[in-house]
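Summary for the steering committee. The consortium agreed at its last meeting that each partner would contribute one worked example illustrating the joint modelling workflow. Our contribution is presented below. We chose a case with several input lines so that the handling of multiple components could be demonstrated. No manual editing was applied between input and output; the record is shown as generated.
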Amino acid sequence: MSYAYLFKYIIIGDTGVGKSCLLLQFTDKRFQPVHDLTIGVEFGARMITIAGKQIKLQIWDTAGQESFRSITRSYYRGAAGALLVYDITRRDTFEHLTNWLEDARQHSSSNMVIMLIGNKCDLESRREVKKEEGEAFAREHGMIFMEASAKTAQNVEEAFINTAKEIYDKIQEGVFDIQNEANGIKLGPEHASPGVGGGGAGARGPGSSSQSGGCC
Amino acid sequence: MAEVKENLKAPPTERQTSKESSPEDLESTVNSAPGDESWTMVSESSMPDDMAADGEGENSKNPEWIPELRQALDEQCGLFEVCRIASGRVLPEDLRVRAWQACLDIPWNADEQSSNFSSWDGMFSLESQSVLREQCKKMIDKCDLETEVEKLSAQSDIESVITAFCSTRKVDYVPHSGWLEILEALVHFELPTSLLYEFFSVILKKYVPKDGPKNEVIHHLFRLIVLYHDPELCNFIDSKRVTFDKFSTTWFASLLAASCKVDTLNAVWDIYFQNDDPFLVMFLGLVLLESQRDQIMERKEDSKEELCTFLKEIPAGMAPEDVVDFYEIANSYLVTTPKSLREANWTTLFGSRPVSPTKRLHIPIPQALCLPVTTDEIVTAATRHSGCRFFVIDCRPPEQYNSGHLVTAFHLDAQLLIQDAPAFNAAVDRLLASQKQAIEANSVAGGEHLCFMGSGFEAEDQYVHMVVARMLQRHHKYVSVADGGYEALLFYIEANALEADRVLAGTDVKKAKGKQTEVVAKPTAVTASSSFFGKLTSAMKTQLPIVKDKIATYISNPQASTSSAPVRHVSADDRPRKAQYRPQNVFVFDEEDEDYEDKLDLSDGDLQNWKEFIRRPDVLAHFECREYVSNDQAVPALLVISETDIYNFRPSADQPEMATMISQHSLMDVLKIVCRRKIPELITIKYGTMEGRDVVVTDIERFYIAKSGDAIKAMKLQILKIISENEGRQFEME
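What follows is the complete predicted structure of the assembly.
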C-alpha cells in the first residue's frame, strides 16, 4: 500500500512491562495474556492516517532483559519515535526509567520523540506508581505521557498515534530532516522522486496542520 | 528420556569393528618383551557405544576389568590407566577413592606428605567462622553417621578443610558456595584430613567454574547451550522469568553434589573424573533438563518459584543406573555444539589454559543473542575431520555479499524480513531446502549447524539479529552467529596470512586474485590492515550510505523488491548443484589442505621452524622426546599432535628452533598405540589401513616420552573425538 511517510518506532522498557502486548494490541487488536518472552527483537507494522495522510508505522519491539541492552541499542539508531513503557503495578520498572532514557538519548537522534507509557492501568488495585508521578517524570524529561492498558486497549491507539502526530508536527516545523534516514522517517513512494525534496508539497498543506491540531 | 536416547544413539562404526579384529600376530612386529602388557588402543575402551552397552550389569557380567583396575591402582597408576581399564564405567565401591585419587592426579602420598593443608596455621579465624561452624553442624546432623564421635570428627574435618582452604588463599568463606556439599560427598570415605583437603581443593580447582565478579558467565553459557539445542524449552523457561542461575548455580558450584542422591553422585563423579572435562557438567545439565522436558513444558500454570524449585530438584530424580546413559547423551550434545564457547571461556571458568587470540570472542557472553562461533571455527570446519559443520548464511545487503563473501556462504537478504515477510519466509524455506541438499551432497558448504553472518558493525547487524531472533522464535535448533561478522573474517584472513581468494568469493575477490588481501577488503571499503577495532569507525562511515540506499530502494519500490529480491539475492537455489557438479570450486579448503601438505612434505634435510609450527591453531600438543630408530639407537625427536595428524620432527643439531619433518600420519591411520607397563615412557605407534579383513601396517614409530601418559591421552582423546563426531555426523545425515 502506498503511504506518504514511514515512521520507525522502537518500544523499550523493562522485561515484563507489556511491550509486546502493546504492539500486538495495536497491530492485531487483540490481547494475549500468556505469551513467550520476546527473543531479541520482533517487528510489527501498521498503517495510520494523520491529517489525511497515510503513514506507515514500522515498530521494533525489543527484549527488555538487561543482557540484551547492547542489541537493543542498535535499534535506537534510525528511530523517529520511542515508546518507553513501565508497569504501574511494579515500582522497579518505573525506577529504571532513568536508565532507559539515558540509553535512548545517548544512542538515538536528538529529535526522537519519546512517549512515556504507564501500562496495565486496568490493574488499579495493584497500582504501585501514581499517575501523577508518571506525569511529573514525563514533564521533567520533556516527554508525552499516557497511561494505557494493552489488555483493555485503553489508550493504545492514542499512544502510537499521538507519537506519530508529534513526529508529523515536527516535520511540518522543519525540525526533522526527512532526507536523512537516520531520523527514522522516510518519504513514501509518492514523494520519493528527488525533485520534490524538502517536506514535500502535500505535507505542508494548510488543511493538514489544522486537522492534526484538532485531533490533539 | 527414552526418546532422547533413541535419537542420540550413534550407530557403531566400521572402524570399531575393524580395530577389534586386528589380528594378534601383529604383536610380533613390535619388539615387545614377553610378559609386557600391551593394549590395543582403539578397540578397547570408552567407545560411546561400549559405555551404553556396559551399564550397570557390567560388574557381574564381565568383571575382569575390576582386578585389573585394582592391580593398576596398587601400582599407583594415573588417570590414563584408570580410563583405559574402567572405560567410563561406574567404579566398584572399594576402588572408588583410589581411582578418584588417580583421576584427580592427587599425589599418592598426599596424606603423609606436607600438603598445602599443612601450611595452614591451624587458626579458626575466618570472618564468617561462626556461620561456617553452624552450617557444618547442620550438615553433619542430617548425615547418617552413627556415633557422636564420628559426627564430631567429620564436622571438625570439614570445618578444618574449608578454614584451611580460605586461610591459605586469604579469602573468606562464602555460604552457599557448594563447598559443603562437595565435602559432604567426600566425608563418607573417611579420608585423613589432609587427603580430604587435597580432594576438595583439586575438585574445586579443576571442575568448579570460577566466574567473574557477578558469577554470571557460566549460567549464560549454559543458557546458550540449552538455547542451541532446544530453543523452545529455553524460551519456555525464559518466559516463566526463571533465570538459569536460579536453578543451576548449585548444580555447577557443587558439581551436582548438592542435588543428587549419594549413590547417584558417586556414579556421576566416577565417570566425570574419568572424562576429565570441566565443561561436561553443562551438557549433563542439558541432559537433565531434556530428561524432564515434557514435565517442564506442562508446568505452564506454575509460578516462577514453583518452576524454579522443580528445575532445581531434577538431579535428585536421577538414579545410579541412569548415569551411564546420561553421559552418553551428554557426550552427543557436546560433539554437536560448536566449540568456540568452550575454547573462549576455558580460562575464565577453569583458569588453566591460555586462549589463543583466534579463539577469543568479541561479544561478551551475557549479551549474546545466540551461540557465537569464532571465525576460526567456521573457516577450519571445512578442513577438520571432526567438529560441527556449518551452513553459513550471510545476511549482509546483497551488494556487499556479491562483492565478497565466505566461499561457502549462502545469502539471505535480512532486510526482506521488514520489506516483505512472506517473501522472507519463502527465502528461508528455500535456504533450508538448500541446506538439506548440501548435506545430502556432502558438500563442505553443507552442515546441520546454521551460522548467520553479519557485517560485524552494530548499526547494520540489527538485521542479522532480527533474522536470528526470527529463527529462534520459530524454535529452530542449531542457530549460531558468526562472532565479529564479515569484518572478523577479513581480519582473520589477514592475521593468518590465508590466500583470500581461497576463502572468499565474489566480484571484488576475483579482481583481487594475485594481489593479496588488501584488495579483498575493498568491498567494505576497509583496508584489512591495522587493528580490527581501529577500523570500526571509518568502516561504519563508509558502509552506512550503502545500507541506506538499499532501504531507500526497497521502501520506495516495495513491489519490485517483492518479486525480484528472493530470486536474485538468495542464490541458494543453484549453489548446492554447484557443489555437486563442480566440487573443485567448493572444496577450496581441501585444496588448501593439500597445498599445506605440499609445503610441509619437505624432502629430508629441509628444515622448518618447529616453534612456529606448533603455534598453528590446530596443534593440540607437542612432546620433546626421543625416537628409537633401531632397537638400541635413539635420537632426539619432537612429536606433534594436531587435531587431525601426528607429526614426527627431528630437531636440527645446531639450530634449536629448526627441525625436519620425518613423518606425518593421520590420526585415523593409528592402528595401535602400545605402551609397556615396565617402561611406561616407551610407546610404539602403529599406523596402517584395513584392506578387506587384513590389517596392513604401513609404519611403526617408537618414542621414549617422559610424559607418555599425556601424549597417549592427547592422541586417544582426539581419535575418539574424531570417531564420535563422524558417527554423529553420519547419524545426522540419515
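The longest strand of chain B covers residues 694-704. The interface with chain A takes residues 220, 235-236, 238-239, 241, 300, 366-367, 369, 417-418, 458-459, 461-462, 465-466, 468-469, 472-473, 548, 551-552, 555-558 of chain B (CB under 8 Å).
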